[in-house]
Amino acid sequence: MAERLGILCTATDWAAPPRTAAALTKCGADVCVVAPPGSYAALTRFKAADIVMPVDDLFRAMPSVLRALAEDFGAHAVLPGDDLAFAALAKFVTRMDQLEVSETTRTMMVRSMPNAPAARLLACDSDFIVAQQHRQLCPAPPCVANPGLAEAEAFTAAHGYPVVVKRDGFASGHGVSICRDREALAGALAQPQPHPRNATFVLQKFVPGTVYGATVSGVYGRPLAGFSFVKHRCSTENGATSVALHDHRDDIAQHAFQLFEEYGLNGFSGFDYIVDPDGKAHFIEINPRLMPTGHLTCFGVDLSAVFMAALSGQPPPPPPLRTHEYAALFPNEWARDTDSPYLRTALHDVPWHDPPVLAAMIDRSLAAQSR
Fold first, then answer.
1. What is the fold, at CATH topology level, of the domain defined by 142-205?
2. pTM for the predicted model, two decimal places
């Protein structure tokens, strides 16, 4: 019998859930997608079942949704598809002892998520990154969580400008302000909080350099496979990766595996770094959810195949051939520059095999360009 997995998604235009669903299905999984109507995740054809409902309804019905995944669908685990999905699952895990939860649902959640203290910390970007600034390997840049203006000015007096204000609950470069002087800092701190579910933020020393990502898969806090890459092109300044350049670094790989193990992660996770001009890597972000690079095999690693083998108790399969050094992620690079040379010379990662998702990606990218 095929392993059964749930994918929980709250984002509408997020490519990682349907791309991962396709990769897992190829490796023999049956996937149940939980997602809002019209989302890429809801549209994918790579699913054995789905639960489609508006996000607010999903949050209210979370205990029932998870029970349905565990008992009706028989999911071994549920994978958070985006940051808000992880936060919702983390909230459930921290309250699980106070809820009437069946043993089947509880077992599924234990297999899916870190323990309650780790889940709570991971769900708050600012608290998590502050806790990482004194690590020996790939420390986070100096930072402070939720400072007022006086504390922020004391921070800049100690560390200088520029600094970065990063608000929790955002992804792909949203919620980030680079402040080069006091006026910009005061303005960033005074901005109304646009994210209604989370008002926390971190003030961090800006580190110039090259942005790297690492994507890892594993089970129950045991990292199994991963790869690192340069974010060679991004859809916007500080935005989502549009071209990934494979570049293995031992320090980043070791650090990402350490965090995966230390915090008991399961499934897929992403880690972001800045490598400064002296070659030192600084950790800047964790994403304990599906990643838009997680389905790629062109870098000689098949994260889904290794993950599925571990779930079924099989040895890892032979790694695929490394076929490309660059991967142009669709629709990001096409939307960024329709004349980009990477659309021709790199692996152009178009989901031809998933026509409903491809059509929606094209339509929404064209609509965004016309605005």
1. Dna Ligase; domain 1 (3.30.1490)
2. 0.95
